[in-house]
């Protein structure tokens, strides 16, 4: 029996997809990369915002239309959140499976293949992990999930509804996984979670054997410090009673761990003890809980990339407060200044939401000014999506969709201008580039080879790339420029999002990176 996985959503969902692949293979299912060959199609869905839900539903409907004989399982976040509703409405799907305990997927597959229509949404408990012998990424890079769920109760966000409260993996488990990946030739390790800063602060977390860790600015998820309606900028619009108002992110329960370091800083120190040649990138750190104690720890080990993914969402103080965040434009500017003081070459990515309820022209202009001031290398922007069961759903002063889309476009254009200028500063420099894909020869010059890769200041999938030119008539250069290898490249020009560079030499780091065939990479196929 063959299965095909149709992957949607974020890097965290990608890891779930990789775990599902391995679980099915353990039960003698054969993976195919051609949906037409599959007996089972798993749509690993996203349910974060409306556009993502629509994409996942369309994927199910398209699969049913194109492959009528295949069984279709809707898995992932959309199934987690809406399985009981969709079982009656989305008849194109043959079964539904949430993302709480992925090891229970067998309980769905067996009845599914017997023409039953199972629905299973396991409890959100712990962090799913396990063997991943095929990674849905380019060769040489992997995502490592260190937390699941979230205790930040941002008023617009459905993640805690979908993924539950914060749970963190034990540090020893994470270290073992990283060691295993490095031993199998993975160079780039991307740590992921809904909020890396909150690592170790979950109510039942005991990541280092000495209890729950703390955050200097307060630990999210406490029942202490509920935001009364009178203190909420959109409070008059809420339909929920004060007893149901979200906890204020930033208030804390006492930490049981006695160390002064945050959990994330402690984890980074543990990773630093691993021997070998690899690089580590931190993806997604909530700005209200960014613990500056990670900066000197990162600086002490050059293997930690100077890359910071901090989703500010907005630059207007009133909107930030309405989002149930405790920061401010001033505090966020100071954070960026501190990072750049420590790492002058830091690459910073953020996310903005346009059209949040109550956003006026003035508050939008404040966000634009904020973006200009912090001048992030990269940012994503989306218009506000009205999500069921979130406090912001019932806020008054909803911004018209067209207005939100227009503002989002303005932010995208502004970021494009900033990105172009930031990329120019990289020109003339030499960087180790991780090759993702080797292309055919240049149309203008048959002896000129082209490849696509990334530098440390470019995260997979979301940022730009480096187009590498090399000499196809040179055997040594052809041997060097291969997927998953590092090459030294001099940046000669920049564009809107990508850079162009010339091959300099094979990176000496390759000699220290393990060679192994124990892991397959889907992007090589």
Q: Please give the alpha-carbon distance between the first and last residues.
A: 20 Å
The low-pLDDT segments are 222-258
Shape: globular
Helical content (DSSP H or I, runs of 4+): 25-40%
Task: Indicate the radius of gyration in whole angstroms.
Answer: 23 Å
Topology of helices and strands:
Layout (H helix, E strand, L loop, with lengths): L1 E6 L3 H16 L3 E2 L8 E6 L4 H17 L4 E6 H13 L5 E3 L8 H8 L5 E2 L13 E2 L5 E5 L1 E2 L10 H5 L3 E2 L2 H13 L4 E5 L70 H10 L6 E4 L11 H6 L4 E6 L7 H6 L6 H14 L4 E8 L6 H14 L3 E6 L17 H24 L5 E9 L9 E7 L11 E6 L3 H6 L5 E9 L4 E8 L13 E2 L4
Parallel strand pairs: 1-2, 1-3, 3-4, 4-5, 5-6, 7-21, 8-11, 11-12, 12-13, 13-14, 14-15, 18-20
Antiparallel strand pairs: 9-10, 16-17, 16-19, 17-18, 19-20
Helix pairs in contact: 11-12
Task: Please summarize what this structure is.
29% of the residues lie in helices and 20% in strands. With 525 residues, the chain is of the alpha/beta class.
Task: Provide a descriptive summary of the structure in words.
The protein is α/β, with parallel strands linked by helices. Helices cover 29% and strands 20% of the residues. The strands form five sheets. The protein has a six-stranded parallel sheet with strand order 2-1-3-4-5-6, sandwiched between helices. A six-stranded parallel sheet has the order 8-11-12-13-14-15. It has a five-stranded mixed barrel with strand order 16-17-18-20-19. Helix 11 packs parallel to helix 12.
Features:
525 residues, globular, 6-stranded parallel β-sheet, 29% helix, alpha/beta
């Amino acid at each position: 029996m063959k299965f095909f996985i149709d992957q949607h959503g974020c890097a965290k969902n990608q890891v779930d997809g990789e775990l599902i692949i391995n679980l099915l293979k353990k039960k003698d299912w054969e993976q195919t990369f051609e949906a037409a060959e599959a007996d089972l199609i798993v749509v690993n869905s996203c349910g974060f915002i409306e556009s993502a839900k629509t994409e996942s539903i369309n994927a199910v409907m398209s699969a049913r239309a194109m492959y009528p004989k295949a069984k279709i399982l809707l898995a992932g976040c959309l199934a987690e959140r809406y399985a009981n509703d969709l079982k009656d409405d989305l008849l194109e799907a043959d079964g539904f499976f949430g993302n709480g305990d992925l090891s229970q997927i067998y309980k769905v597959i067996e009845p599914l293949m017997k023409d039953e229509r199972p629905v299973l949404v396991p409890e959100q408990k712990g962090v799913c992990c396990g063997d991943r012998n095929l990674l849905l990424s380019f060769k040489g890079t992997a995502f490592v999930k260190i937390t699941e769920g979230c205790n930040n109760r941002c008023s617009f966000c459905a993640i805690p509804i979908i993924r539950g409260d914060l749970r963190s993996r034990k540090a020893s488990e994470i270290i073992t996984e990283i060691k295993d990946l490095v031993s199998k030739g993975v160079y780039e390790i991307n740590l992921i979670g809904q909020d890396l800063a909150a690592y170790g602060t979950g109510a039942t977390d005991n990541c280092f054997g000495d209890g729950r860790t703390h955050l200097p600015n307060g630990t999210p998820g406490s029942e202490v410090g509920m935001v009364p309606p009178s203190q909420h900028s959109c409070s008059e619009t809420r339909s929920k009673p004060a007893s149901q108002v979200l906890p204020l992110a930033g208030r804390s329960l006492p930490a049981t761990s006695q160390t002064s370091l945050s959990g994330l800083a402690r984890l980074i120190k543990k990773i630093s003890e691993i021997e070998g040649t690899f690089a580590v990138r931190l993806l997604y750190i909530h700005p209200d809980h960014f613990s500056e104690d990670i900066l000197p720890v990162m600086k002490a080990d050059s293997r930690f990339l100077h890359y910071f993914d901090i989703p500010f969402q907005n630059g207007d103080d009133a909107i930030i407060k309405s989002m149930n965040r405790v920061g401010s434009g001033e505090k966020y500017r100071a954070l960026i200044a501190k990072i750049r003081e420590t790492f002058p070459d830091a690459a910073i990515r953020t996310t903005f939401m346009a059209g949040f309820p109550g956003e006026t022209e003035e508050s939008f202009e404040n966000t634009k000014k904020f973006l200009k001031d912090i001048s992030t290398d990269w940012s994503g922007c989306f218009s506000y999506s009205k999500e069921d069961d979130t406090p912001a759903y019932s806020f008054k002063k909803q911004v018209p969709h067209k207005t939100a889309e227009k503002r989002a476009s303005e932010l995208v254009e502004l970021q494009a201008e900033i990105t172009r200028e930031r990329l120019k500063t990289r020109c003339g420099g030499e960087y180790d580039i991780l090759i993702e894909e080797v292309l055919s020869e240049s149309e203008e010059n048959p002896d000129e080879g082209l490849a696509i890769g990334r530098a440390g200041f470019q995260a997979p999938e979301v940022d730009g790339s480096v187009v590498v030119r090399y000499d196809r008539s040179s055997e040594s250069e052809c041997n060097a420029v291969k997927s998953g290898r590092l090459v030294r490249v001099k940046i000669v020009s920049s564009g809107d999002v990508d850079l162009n560079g010339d091959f300099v030499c094979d990176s000496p780091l390759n000699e220290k990176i393990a060679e192994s065939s124990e892991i397959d990479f889907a992007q090589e196929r």
